[in-house]
Amino acid sequence: MSHIHERAPASAAADWTIPQDWSAYTPQDHAMWDTLFARQAAMLPDRVVPEFMDGLDILRMTKPGIPDFSELSDRLMRRTGWQVVAVPGLVPDRVFFEHLANRRFVTGRFIRTPEQLDYLEEPDVFHDVFGHVPLLAHPVFADYMQAYGEGGLRAERMGAIDRLARLYWYTVEFGLIRQGDDLRLYGAGIVSSHGESIFALDDPSPNRLGFDLKRLMRTKYRIDDYQQSYFVIDSFEDLLRQTVETDFAPLYHALEGAPDLEVDTILPEDRIYTLGTQAYARGRFTKEDRLP
Ligand SMILES: [Fe+2]
CB under 8 Å to 104, separation ≥6 — which residues? Predict the structure, then answer.
């Protein structure tokens, strides 16, 4: 879900891409995809933005088995000009941003083992493709992803990648959206996780706060467990507009002296959808504290 670590590829191109090697998947690999797909497809329709379900249909991702990236890219290209390319694992920030800025989404090609059904340290093809790709068929979200990549390249020059990475985390990975009176899921880290798809919407523990770009770029995040705060956007159009129209340079400068906010901080100016009990997180920390 993150792209911050680097690992030297043994045999990758300069842009780190490798062939998907679709024919190398075993029947067990495809069966794993189908298991994960069936579980999420059964519970998501009432929870995820309809645009996500539309994306599954448009891209024919309902077809059994791990998708062939070249077929997926053909459909995506016709729709929004995006492609899906395989990489050997997490790639350097610059490579990641460069691909996004050119409307290429990089994805892992391996699939988790049955033991990893609910927890993964590195994103696999189910997270990357099921989680991220359907919304790339949505024209506005597709433009947002490109704008984020372009912003990433600028942030790198300004030494502000850590700030900008929080925007990705709290939108692309763990974003919620308001639709009418409902909150809905759209973040890939949520929709590719059975547990978090329930937790993020239904559990009284986490905060659900209105999206505020500057505030969010000050907010730490959890990489090891469910989020303690989620941020709710008003629409994909608004998210794209803010990302494109905001001049990030002065924002980064203004944030230079500002202390980071903890994952559960509430500010007086926050727009609160849910004031979380944080009961889940407290339970987890207590257990951890008891470890020798
Ligand atoms: Fe991800």
Answer: 82, 83, 84, 85
Residue 121 has what pLDDT? 81
Domain that holds residue 85: 22-240+267-280
Is the CB of residue 127 less than 8 Å from the CB of residue 120? yes
Q: 132 a known binding residue?
A: yes
For residue 122, what are its two tokens?
A: 């590195």
Spacing, Cα 290 to ligand 1 middle (Å)? 31
Q: Ligand 1 centroid vs 108 CA: distance in angstroms?
A: 10
Question: How many angstroms does the Cα of residue 131 sit away from the middle of ligand 1?
Answer: 7
What's the structural domain count of the chain? 1
For residue 54, which of 202, 236, 239, 182 has the smallest C-alpha distance? 236
**H/E element holding 285?**
helix 279-290
Whole-model pTM above 0.85?
A: yes
Q: Where are the beta strands (DSSP E) in 52-173?
A: 83-86, 104-107
Confirm or deny that 99 is annotated as ligand binding: no
Question: pLDDT tens digits for 35-78?
Answer: 999 999 999 999 999 999 999 999 999 999 999 999 999 999 99
Distance, CA 132 to ligand 1 centroid (Å)? 7
CATH classification of the domain holding 42: 1.10.800.10
